[in-house]
Write a structure and sequence with these properties.
With about 325 residues, the chain is mostly helical. It has 10 helices and 4 strands; from the N terminus they run αααβαβββαααααα.
Length: about 325
């Protein structure tokens, strides 16, 4: 095994360990709340309720999410090279069904995946298809396909269930405190400070753990994508371009020239610099890239260039 392969294996083990530790912390926090509010039975409920909800709650259709972004299907005739790349990446990832490719009419450089391994889609914005080279887009496609093959979407859904129920239990406990407060003020009853602190800060802690999970899964998707394409530099180049674009949009809209770096703990994605460093450590991979065509047209001529600037929409982000 070469150095790049060893780095990949080590990175996968660490990311898996981090994921297990994060979920253990979320479950432990949830169980603590259950025990504080309902006793020993609360611990059992804390384990069973998220699992039951995760498997019984109706899954949102990928097409419903895509409609929120105004996305439409990209046919093979419209983007044959992209379909060939996705097909090859799906084969390398061991997926029996290749994700559907969709087009989002937006200047924002964005790509995301929705659905499950058997029913998934990858959305690519107009901006990303025009601004990145085919080699870079191959890296982005591999990254999104890695989220699908690694079941990251289900992991995020489970983490979201934990966070939402933790917030609900915290709110319920704070309401109980308000009813119990007169007894504390006018009788000899007392209320442990630890109990109050846990109820107040549990939602924030759970949310921060959810963000940490997101960053861990992004690192893992980067590693898997580099392995699938055999071209870590392609994804690294795409990330660098997208980061420069994001910074220019931020500086233009919010306090130009005075941007304050967002703390790492509050980010859904790791810092681009750290992602690039990790990808550079895999540069020794010898598998040929999926795409070796740098400057061929990706979108057909009848696709009009999106000229309107990004704007905010209710229930969905800038696009």
């Amino acid at each position: 095994m070469n150095a790049a392969g060893a780095y990949f294996s080590q990175g996968k083990r660490l990311n898996t360990l981090h994921t297990i530790l994060i979920f253990s912390a979320m479950l432990g926090l949830f169980a603590l709340l259950g025990w504080m509010l309902f006793g020993s039975m609360g611990i059992l409920w804390a384990v069973m309720i998220p699992v039951v909800l995760f498997f019984t709650t109706p899954k949102i259709s990928p097409h419903m999410v895509l409609r929120m972004y105004g996305a439409r299907r990209l046919s093979y005739a419209e983007a044959p090279k992209l379909h060939e790349i996705v097909g090859e990446l799906s084969r390398r990832a061991g997926l029996t069904t290749a994700p559907q490719l969709t087009y989002v009419p937006s200047r924002v450089l964005n790509a995301f995946s929705v659905g499950t391994q058997d029913n998934s889609a990858i959305a690519l914005s107009d901006g990303i298809l025009r601004y990145l080279t085919l080699r870079e887009i191959a890296g982005v496609l591999a990254h999104e396909l890695s989220h699908i093959s690694n079941n990251d979407l289900r992991l995020h859904a489970l983490a979201d269930v934990f966070t939402r129920i933790t917030s609900s239990l915290s709110f319920f406990g704070q309401v109980l405190i308000l009813f119990y407060l007169p007894m504390v003020l006018f009788t000899e009853a007392h209320m442990p400070v630890f109990f109050i602190l846990v109820l107040i800060f549990a939602p924030t802690i759970s949310f921060l753990l959810q963000l940490a999970l997101s960053r861990t899964r992004e690192f893992d998707a980067d590693l898997t994508a580099a392995r699938l394409t055999g071209d870590p530099q392609g994804l690294a180049s795409a990330l660098a371009k997208m980061d420069r674009y994001e910074q220019s949009i931020w500086d233009l809209v919010f306090l130009p020239g005075r941007k304050v770096p967002q703390p790492s703990i509050l980010r859904t994605h790791p810092h681009t610099k750290e992602r690039l460093e990790r990808l550079a450590a895999m540069a020794g991979e010898q598998k040929p890239p999926v795409s070796d065509h740098e400057h061929i047209p990706i979108l057909p001529e009848h696709f009009a260039r999106i000229e309107r600037p990004p704007r905010w929409h209710w229930f969905r982000p800038w696009y």
